[in-house]
């Protein structure tokens, strides 16, 4: 399925994968007065192809099932990226991660990432699968990093003017190691 991008002044919850977390967040949002905006983005998907678990539902189904999630960043209703007989390569995933990061930092998400009065941008939580997280870390210059199952991988990424990435810190299970 498609990964999620969650925008908020502070990161609270997530969604993604088989949408179990999204179902929890959907229920939680009924009580959440902060209304955490969530955007689903096709680029955040796990490695695509061959395995049917990596094929996404159509957007019509997703919108009716998860009405609190914005699916406008997905260009087609049906999954046109998944292939029955072709598995995406690591270099293709890396390219997709670079495109996603460029979209994120070039303000394709401008409506959801407004800068506060102090001039500081909001925090962004990207919730996805380990293969895509690994590709993002590589795209940011972090080298090989293998998240554990269900691991939260905080990345500190600084955007400076037109530079997509200025610095990267990966704070994983080692408790604060920089990459």
Automatic annotation (TrEMBL):
Gene Ontology cellular component annotations, sorted alphabetically: cytoplasm
Entry's transmembrane regions: none
GO molecular function, one term: phosphatase activity
PANTHER family attached to this UniProt entry: BROAD-SPECIFICITY PHOSPHATASE YOR283W-RELATED (PTHR48100), HISTIDINE PHOSPHATASE FAMILY PROTEIN-RELATED (PTHR48100:SF1)
Protein's UniProt name: Uncharacterized protein
